[in-house]
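does this look right to u?? adenosine monophosphate version
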Amino acid sequence: MPHDTPLIATIVAGLGLAFVFGALAQRFRFPPLVGYLLAGVAVGPFTPGFVADQALATELAELGIILLMFGVGLHFSLKDLMSVRAIAVPGAVVQITVATLMGMALSWAMGWSIGGGLVFGLALSVASTVVLLRALQERRLMDTERGRIAVGWLIVEDLAMVLALVLIPAFASLQNGNGDVAAADPLAARFGLGLTGVLLLTFAKIGVFMAVMLVVGRRLIPWILHYVAHTGSRELFRLAVLAIALGVAFGSTKLFGVSLALGAFFAGMMLGESPLSQRAAQESLPLRDAFAVLFFVSAGMLFDPASIIREPWPLLATLFIILFGKSLAAFLIVVAFRHPVSTALTISASLAQIGEFSFILAEIGGATNLLPKAGRDLILAGAIISIMLNPLMFAALDWLLPRLERRRADPATPAAPKPAEIPVTGLTEHTIVVGYGRVGRLVGEALQQRGHAFVAVETSEDILKQLKDAGIETITGNAARSNVLRATNPSAAHALVIAIPEAFEAGQIVEQARAANPALHIVARAHSDAEVEHLKSLGADMVIMGEREIARGMIEELDTRPPDPAPELVPQRAAEGVSI
Ligand code: AMP
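got this back:
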């Protein structure tokens, strides 16, 4: 008797087809993501042939979201979150309001109820975590300020959704006239709380959740991992990481009603607070990408291609809100907060899509009879199409940015003069130090001691201020930009020290400087053998790999105290040296 294995069939069909379609998409120069979505459409119920289990696929996709958010949390420290709150909180709130109002206006035009419009508008206002993170990671934006603002913004949206998911059923019951909040929150119902009560209870739950994470999680999670690390079993260590990620996400959903994604994000953040565990944990997330792919497949499965033809105008209006309405709102808010245009454009592009939260909202809207079926179809079609078009939004960004920059002041540095007008340094036979962080500062100090003239290039405002206070000649901006590099007068310089950690940017700098001055002595910094090769091939004379130098320093230190020839003394010294 053949036995039924829907879970295996779903995983195999999902990953297998995603691979085939992804490879095909790549072949035709589309992002693989488009292929994953099409793979979903192919195994979905609206196209002929094999139909995968939709409920299972959705649950597998949730796993992907948990793991992804856990990974983001790992990179994200509490400090990062706090440092962007000034823009992320008002930004997300205003954007959600604007998008919701636009959605409500559209639904009003289609004759739906206010409640339906509210759910519809909210669904259009929240971006997909997975799509946003993919886009940021692919473009190496996770560690930039723009990336941090976008992630902070996403966290605020996430929190707003927690509220919305609780309030919608309450709202539905009010609109249906019975004032019963049981559907919204059984606890609130038991104590006879009204809408205000439900709200307060939700806030209280989120508050308790955060407090528990900050006070208990912050200590307990690293403690568990350190304990497991001592067992020496890698397998057990990876398992511990996975168990914590999934356990905290699931537990916080059950106990505090926050989303799985948010729970996982906090779990990751607690882990990331301790630098030791961070690295180990990162390596143990190989499952993440596979499940993220399943997310896209399951999104594709929901899509009914015929809906595009059935209702073209409402769909176009929905897409307009997602792609342009939301982006414009985000853009204006970010610029109003005096952030550079490049930041505003990146954030707009990353948020110009909708995804998993919108699916959840559509489902709740349907279950509470607030949202008509047409609304659900529009949300799904809007999500699929906006996810497919998202890479195009970024392509448009790439096209637009250099053109804007040519006309405006360097956006990375608000105080900078117009690009064409960055005054070229008067120095000649000087050294150019790009990046004045942990590495560049030491180089600069050595040059000062030797009395060599140098000019520093920096982007960070904090460091620029320190440089100014120290009276060091500085050029503000990203040295990879041609106008910034030109201002350092490379053609008359003696040497160029590239002390930044990012090899792609360093490569750009090497290439341009080499073209400007074939005799320039270029020394660059790298963190892997591949980066060393890359920079040398572009014209660097010498590339110092950080990790190799660290090893050299360690070996030198060991050589200062060679091992004692008497073997019985060795264990004793080891015992003295170990402190745990
Ligand atoms: P560290 O890794 O501590 O040596 O810091 C590197 C420094 O380089 C930081 O202060 C950055 O602000 C700076 N930096 C990174 N990329 C660039 C760039 N493309 N142009 C100028 N400065 C940069």
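Confidence is low (pLDDT under 50) at residues 178-182, 409-420, 573-580. idk if thats expected tbh
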